[in-house]
């Protein structure tokens, strides 16, 4: 959406006339994870990059302590209103629980402006596609309120607070990956993040003649409604059993070798497979980051494929649509690798495709998917961006 249209909508929703105010436009990206799935809440590694698609917010300060928030993506409803001193409402079920959850955590840390704000949100990430639209709303909210209030919030702290909001307010036991990528992303780079220590390094996405293609299955996934929290509990169970033998605080602190010689401790086959996925996925992610840095796209692609198989067979978070997409991608010459990305049970795949094979890839996947599943997927060539930021500041006066 053009900034001028965004401003016109702001005027329509909140009214600008009679106000002499500063309008600020902020952005926070979504993310695509290249490899390392369900490792984050198990103290392992992930390799996401921040996308140029994400959520925008146009923000104006108010003189009283009330906040009004409105999303262009949820039109035909009234703005949600609340006091900045009491942002959270347990009973809230609509989209506003994401920003309100973050404001509630910020409020506990005395990190809120002294006055209220009017905020207009607009997102261009496909909804329910597993590209972290909710994390981008969370990070955007914390960033925007922090900037308007001159609160100097550290970016890693911001990611941690947004995760806390999602865990303890929204009720999804997610890890830190999405919020970290949205806050700390860098254009042209992926982040290798150790989710245990938060140590991280940026890996240049130097992909000569090659693209990262996101394919949206158009089968929406819903994190909280899905079995995500169940997977989290199964991993906790596996950890509790393995702690009889190892002094660790997270599953990914156990090496592949130690796991192999101790796997017999876990009697339940399901729990055993869950732990196997997490521990092997962590190893794959570390190896993949080295291959990426060395420009070994063949090797990187093979690890992407192995990651998908592990999610499909051991962690059981794939679904027919995801398997159809990856198998079709694997069949195309010039595709280095392809895997489901994100929390699972729908959403998107990410594929590493040589540019001269792009057309063939799209055609094969589109036609095959349509005939197997009955509707079309959508393709996006990945464009990366920096983490949350200010896009524009403008003083608005009547008549301007
Ligand atoms: C979701 C969660 C993340 C992570 C992924 C799976 O995106 O929000 O924390 O667990 O699923 O890797």
Structural account:
The structure is a single chain. The protein is α+β, with helices and mostly antiparallel strands and 400 residues long. It folds into two domains: 3-202 and 385-397, Ribosomal Protein S5, domain 2; 207-381, 2-Layer Sandwich (Alpha-Beta Plaits), CATH 3.30.70. 39% of the residues lie in helices and 22% in strands. The chain has eleven helices and 13 strands. The protein has helices spanning 3-14, 97-108, 133-148, 155-170, 177-184, 228-242, 256-262, 269-293, 297-313, 320-330, 358-373, and strands at 21-33, 45-46, 48-61, 66-71, 80-83, 117-123, 189-194, 200-204, 210-216, 335-341, 348-354, 378-381, 389-396. A hairpin with a 5-residue loop joins β7 (189-194) and β8. α3 crosses α5 (177-184), α4 (155-170) runs antiparallel to α5 (177-184) and α6 (228-242) crosses α8 (269-293). The radius of gyration is 22 Å and the shape is globular. The two termini are 21 Å apart. Alpha-D-galactopyranose (GLA) is lined by residues 37-38, 40-41, 174-175, 177-178, 342-343.
């Amino acid at each position: 959406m053009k900034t001028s249209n965004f401003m016109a909508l702001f005027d329509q929703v909140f009214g600008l006339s009679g106000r002499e105010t500063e309008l600020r436009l902020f952005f926070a990206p979504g993310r695509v994870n290249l490899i390392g799935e369900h490792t984050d809440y198990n103290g392992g590694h992930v390799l996401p990059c921040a996308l140029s698609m994400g959520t925008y917010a146009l923000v104006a300060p108010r003189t009283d302590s009330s906040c009004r928030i409105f999303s262009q993506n949820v039109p035909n409803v009234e703005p949600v209103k609340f006091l900045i001193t009491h942002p959270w409402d347990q009973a809230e079920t609509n989209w506003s629980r994401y920003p309100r959850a973050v404001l509630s955590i910020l409020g506990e840390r005395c990190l809120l402006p002294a006055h209220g704000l009017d905020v207009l949100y607009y997102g261009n990430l496909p909804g329910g596609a597993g590209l972290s639209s909710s994390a981008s709303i969370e990070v955007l909210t914390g960033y925007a309120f922090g900037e308007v209030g001159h609160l100097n919030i550290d970016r890693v702290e911001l990611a941690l607070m947004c995760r806390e909001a999602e865990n303890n307010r929204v009720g999804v036991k997610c890890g830190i990956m999405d919020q970290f990528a949205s806050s700390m992303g860098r254009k042209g780079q992926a982040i290798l993040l150790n989710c245990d220590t938060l140590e991280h390094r940026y890996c240049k996405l130097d992909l000569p003649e090659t693209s990262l293609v996101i394919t949206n299955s158009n089968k929406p996934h819903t994190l909280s409604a899905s079995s995500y929290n169940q997977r989290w509990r199964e991993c906790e169970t596996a950890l509790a059993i393995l702690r009889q033998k190892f002094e660790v605080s997270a599953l990914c602190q156990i090496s592949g070798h130690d796991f192999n010689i101790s796997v017999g401790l876990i009697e339940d086959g399901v729990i055993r497979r869950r732990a196997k996925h997490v521990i092997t996925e962590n190893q794959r992610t570390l190896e993949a980051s080295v291959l990426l840095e060395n420009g070994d796209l063949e090797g990187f692609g093979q690890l992407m494929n192995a990651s998908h198989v592990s999610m499909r067979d051991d962690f059981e978070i794939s679904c027919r649509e995801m398997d159809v997409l990856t198998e079709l991608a694997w069949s195309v010459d010039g595709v280095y690798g392809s895997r489901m990305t994100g929390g699972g049970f729908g959403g998107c795949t990410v594929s590493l495709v040589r540019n001269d094979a792009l057309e063939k890839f799209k055609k094969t996947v589109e036609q095959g998917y349509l005939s197997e599943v009955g509707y079309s997927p959508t393709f996006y060539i990945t464009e990366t961006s920096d983490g949350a930021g200010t896009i524009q500041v403008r003083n608005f006066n009547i008549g301007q």
